[in-house]
Amino acid sequence: MKKHFLLLPLLALAVPAAAQRTEIIGRVGLGLFKFSGTGTEHTSFINYSNDFGEPNGYTNNPYSNRFGTGVSFGARAQHVGQKNGLLAFDLGYEWLRNRSTITQLYYSPALTSSFRGAYSADGNTNLATRNVTAFLGLGHRFQVGTIEIDALAGPEAAYVFGFSEKGSGTYNGNLNWAIEQRDRAFNRFDARLRADATAWYHRVGVNASYSYGFINYRGNQLGGNSDASARILRLGLAYRLR
Questions:
Q1: CA distance 67 to 52
Q2: H/E element holding 25?
Q3: Residues 74/78/84/87 CA torsion (nearest 10 deg)
Q4: Cα–Cα–Cα angle for 54, 98, 125, nearest 5°?
Q5: Beta-carbon contacts of residue 33 (< 8 Å; ≥ 6 apart)
């Protein structure tokens, strides 16, 4: 009889522990990226030259406030508490790019030439970045019938590197232009706030998240106080490995 009474406290401790678990999650999806702030534009123009027979050019303001497409994937360790509280740590890698609409092209036959021609133009350019991200989220799991919904929010740190610019179009009626610039901007760390939601059906989930960046990507430029900070929307699929 005494043995049965001794088991009761052990069972009381075991039940909450059994209700808790740690999940390992993989995710992959689409990343939509743009800039926001006073230093961003919907459209821009190309500064273009043909020095020594080699076409060369760049977007005057590559910090566009139009979403461009990229890819995002990562892995997450998530602890589920006894009352469905969530603590998650997510590591990710992203290749993201915005999208600038080009309306004009300023042409010089050579960098040393004083001639500058202004032409109507069309086409698009993309400023691409690579991001390594770390997200720490707190939240809750909601049960809606057979669907589980995880809602998380918290800080995100990112190392943004590998800035490159690429684009093409036409100018002056039927002439083609194309640009490709590596190291278009300096590598930097970004601090963000992130909201994240995943709807689960058994092991498969649909994931969406939004990151609001606070770091000014134009902060190292002289002669102005305009700003451009990152905005990222992610849409994709997730899978619970356990």
A1: 35
A2: strand 21-36
A3: -100
A4: 25
A5: 67, 68, 70, 96, 97, 98, 129, 230, 231, 232, 233
DSSP 58-123: EES---BSS-EEEEEEEEEEEEE-TTSEEEEEEEEEEEEE--EEEEEEEEESSTT----EEEEEEE
Whole-angstrom distance, CA of residue 130 vs CA of residue 91: 14
CA distance linking residue 44 with residue 42, whole number of Å: 7
pTM value is 0.86
Q: What pLDDT digit, counting tens, does each position of 109-150 carry? A: 765 666 678 999 999 999 999 999 999 999 999 999 999 999
Residue with tokens 């990710």: 92
Distances (CA, A) of 83 to 17, 86, 204: 11, 9, 22
